[in-house]
Amino acid sequence: MELNIRPEQPSDYRETEEVTREAFWNHYAPGCCEHYLLHIMRECPAFLPELALVAVQEGRIVGAVVSLKAAIFGDDGREYEVLTLGPIAVLPGYQRQGIGTRLIQRTKDAARRLGYRAILLCGDPDYYSRQGFLPAERLNIRTADNLYAAALQYCELWDGALSGAAGRYVEDPIYAVEDAAVAAFDKGFPPKEKISGTASQQRFQQLAAMCRAAD
């Protein structure tokens, strides 16, 4: 079946949020916040509509990805503009078919044409290493609170794009959503059971603990 990747349109917003909710429900924690995050991102100054993409199959949105502007505050005093990827979502019934890979590749291609130097994210290296991402620690890039994190990864959009960019990576503060706001927003969707202790939640907790202070 043909998969079409295209820019998200305003008429897609609700369906894209539903897809994101389905993809993330009980994945990192009981329930999820990513559909609310996507909802409020669109009004964020760092949001890039041209990098908001949906994957459509047989007239149905089955995947989506967005990106926001971010920065690395370099140890050399410079500020390096980069992108944060995510959330990226694929409906559970359509996962492991290469849809996420195609969304990421299309994002890379578009971001490169727009002149961005690199994409960073926090995610599972078991997956993102297969998408061309590398540990940020290799370039001495740390989190905003100056930690080396196993989940923090980068992908240069051209060779040497982050040369000399050692420093602290700071994503947009919109990612720090409030639990009460998430709960209120989620009431507008059909009820779903929240489950604790899933394998993906355990993996997330493991990765979250894999941090160490910079020397």
TrEMBL record:
Record domain N-acetyltransferase: where? 3-154
Is Iron one of the keywords UniProt gives this record? no
- Tell me which InterPro entries the record gives: Acyl_CoA_acyltransferase (IPR016181), GNAT_dom (IPR000182), MshD_Acetyltransferase (IPR050276)
Q: Name one GO molecular function term.
A: acyltransferase activity, transferring groups other than amino-acyl groups
Output the superkingdom of the source species.
Bacteria
> Which UniProt keywords are present, listed alphabetically?
Transferase
UniProt key word Transferase: yes
Q: Which Gene3D superfamilies match?
A: 3.40.630.30
Q: Which PANTHER family match?
A: L-AMINO ACID N-ACETYLTRANSFERASE, UPF0039 PROTEIN SLL0451
Name of this protein: N-acetyltransferase
Can you name the source organism? Oscillibacter hominis
Phylogenetic placement of the source organism: Bacteria, Bacillati, Bacillota, Clostridia, Eubacteriales
